[in-house]
Design a protein that fits this description.
The complex is a heterodimer of chains A (234) and B (245). Chain A has helices spanning 95-99, 158-162, 167-176, 195-210, 217-233, and strands spanning 10-11, 16-19, 24-27, 29-32, 35-38, 42-47, 50-55, 68-77, 80-84, 91-94, 119-126, 134-136, 143-145, 149-152, 179-182, 187-191. Chain A has 234 residues and is of the alpha+beta class. In chain A, the strands form four sheets. A five-stranded mixed barrel of chain A has the order 8-9-10-12-11. The longest helix of chain A has 17 residues, at 217-233. In chain B, the strands form three sheets. In chain B, strands 3-4-5-7-6 form a five-stranded mixed beta sheet.
Chain lengths: 234, 245
Amino acid sequence: MPIFVKNMEIVAPGELIAQGKNYKIVEGAYRINDKVYSEFLGILYIREGSIRVVPLQGNFYMPKVGDTVIGIVIDCNPVSWTVNIRAPYLARLDASDFLGKPIDPNKDKITKYMDIGDVVMAKIAVADRVTNPQLIAHGKGLGKITHGKIIAVPPKKVPRILGKDRSMIKMIRDITKAEIRVSNNGYVWIKADNKTVEQLIILAIQRIIREAHLPGLTEKIREMLSSKLKDVES
Amino acid sequence: MTIVTKDNIILLNEKGRRSDGRKWNELRPISMVVGVLERADGSAIVETGGTKVLAAVYGPKEMYPKHLAMPDRAILRVAYRMTSFSVEERKKPHPSRREIELSKVIKEALEPAVILEEFPRTVIDVYILVLQADGGTRVASINAASLALADAGIPMKGLVTAIAVGRLGNQVIVDLNDVEDKYGNADMPIAYIPSTGEITLFQMDGTMSPDLFDKCLEVAIETLNKIHEMQKEALKRKYLKNKKD
C-alpha cells in the first residue's frame, strides 16, 4: 500500500497519490480501482490513512448548510431579499428569517430594514443541488453589518486564515485586540481601534493568502504583527 | 529519403532532419506559464515553437441564458479565437467556421477531464486566444486550457495533454509545424488524459497504413506523457517559486 507523494506536498490534478483500498478520502481526491488520484492543484494532507487535498486556487464558493456567509443585497421584493454570496447561485433571505417575525407587505416596507447594497451576515439554512440557497440572518452574531471594514479573500484560503483549530485568527485577535470575523465565502470583517491596526491586519491577511502553502506561517505572522505594532506604538 | 514540396521547401532531408532541423521525434521548444492574467480565475500561456496560445478560465458562475443550464452539472463553454495578426495574411476578426468547429472539438476534449457534476446549473467559461499560429494551435490550445482550468481550482480527473503526430512519406513525425501541417502526408492531433488513459480528441487528415498508424499512436502516447510532466511542473512552479522566495 504505497504512498507516492509526501505529506504537505503540492499535487497536480490527476496525480497518483496512493495505491491501496485502506485509504479514506476526505476531500479533493478520487479513486479508480485501488488507486487514489488528486482532483485539484493543491496541498496533500495524509493523516492516519485519510487523504485530503486542499486546493490552492479557487475564486468561487459552494454553499453548504451551516456556513456563515457575508452577502451583499442585490435585489428586494415585498417579502425577501436576493443576496450575492459569491457563489454561482444567488441566495434568498426571507424577511421573517431576518426580522424574526413575519412581515406584512401592505403595512411595512422591506427596504426600511435593508436595501440594495447593504451587507448582511447570515447562515446558510438550505442548500441543495436543485434550488438556490436560502439564508437565515436572525440570531447571535448575524444580521445587517453597519460598521467595520470588509475585505475579500479567495474562499479556498479561508481554512488557512482560520488556522488549525482557529489558531491563526485567535492569534491575530489577541495581538491586535480587534474584532475579526471570517465568513466561509471569503469575506473578512474587521473592526479595529484605529486605521493603522486595521491596515496591519489587512497586510497580515494578504500575506497569509500569498504564503498559504508554506509551513510555519502562524509564527511568521505573529512576528510580523508584534514587530509592526511595536513600531506603531513607539 | 528527401521530401520536397512544390515550393521547394525541404520537408525531410537525406539525414532525416525536418524543415526546421528537428529529428523525427523531436519537440519544438515548449514554454508553459500559469497564472498570467490577474482578472481571470485561472489562466495560462503556452508557446510551442512559433505557436503562442493564451487561455483564460472564468467560473463556475451562474448560467445565462438560464434555459441552457443543465440541472445536474455545469456546462463548459469554450471559445477558440485567432487574433487577426496571428497568421501571415490578416485574418478577418469575425468567428470563422473553423474557429466555431475547433471550439466544439476542444470543448469535447476537455469535458471528460473536468468534474462538472460538482457544480449543477452553472457554467465554466474557457476563452482561448491564438496570438501566433505556426501549426498545432488546437493541441497548444488544449494544453493551455487544461492548465488554466487547473489554475482556476476546478476539480479535474487529470490534466488533458495534446500533441499532433503525422507522416512525411513513410517517416513518422512528432509535433508538426505549419509547413508540415500544410504539405505533409498525414496529420493526427491527439488529446489524452494520462491519469485515466482516456483519449479525448482524435482526428486525422490524410492517409496512413495500419502499421504506421500503430507506430504514430505509440509515439504520440510516449510524447504526451513527457508533455504531461511539463504541465505538472508548470503548475507547481507558480507555488514553488514562491516557496524559494
